[in-house]
Amino acid sequence: MTAIIGWAHSKFGKLEAETLESLIVGAATEAIADAGLAPADIDAIYVGNFGGFEKQSFPAAFALNASPALRFKPATRVENACATGSAAIHAAHTSIAARAARFVLVVGAEKMTVAAGDQIGDILLNASYRAEEGDTPGGFAGIFGRIAELYFQRYGDQSEALARIAAKNHRNGVANPNAQLRKELSVEFCNTVSDKNPLVAGPLRRTDCSLVSDGAAAVVMCDTETALRFPKAVHLRGLAHVQDYLPMSARDIVNFEGCEVAWKKAHERAVTSLADLSFVETHDCFTIAELLEYEAMGLTPRGQGARAIAEGWTEKGGRLPVNPSGGLKSKGHPI
Fold this sequence. Notes:
Low-confidence stretches: none
Strand content: 5-15%
Number of strands: 8
Order of helices and strands: EHEEHEHHHHHEEEHEHHHH
Strand order of the largest sheet: 3-2-4-7-1-8
Helix content: 25-40%
Distance between the termini: 24 Å
């Protein structure tokens, strides 16, 4: 198995003074130092970057600029839509498990704000099936707006549940110094359409959508046996990676079946159950995604995700806190 022995991240937000290169170099430099390694110790590099926001489409080599000692190290860009960062972790894990590398640097970075606002939604549609979904009104937000519409049709209007999720995550983000928006928003505000909280796509309001962000994060990984010699390490007990069909027409988009399978595989490999977890950090790119994740992880049956947020299960101090960091709703969504 593998472990993480060093890590670093930038503050997320509109980082006008930063370039994609500087974000990658900064996170890489800090993570290697945090691990207590010299740059020469790194055997391989994986850079997670969705891209498309600027013309630069080959960012893997930027990591080498963190130190002359990294020159000629193998560096590979990984892209897997919103799972780009975790896919880079999986690539590093595989490399270590195959004994192709001992110490691996993984960097996730995105510079979204260089694109114009009206372009960003369209760029993100590259993570959908363009042949059928490329003209979706509202861009990528429209994809999740459609998911929310279908969920509401099947299980009733869940606008208040989504507002509670947004308010929870913004409240949690106040305590996170690296979050992009450290501001508490009330459930009433999040649940009311207004000039400051307009509808964006379908039933989704602005407060239901994660923030456009710049940012970077990096980790240094190695095998668990080696990690035990380091002063701090996070053992990766169970990892799982699955892929579902891309077209929404090929699956029931109201059921996050791919996520459900991934959860089951991860628990099997870690020999754990949901009851063993102290908290969950999940992908709340839109509040409807977090609601559906409650069901995919088995916290509630399908169609009953609203119960988890209404009864406080996912709050800090609740049965299973979800996104105590503030999630993407307050941190931003750079990687």
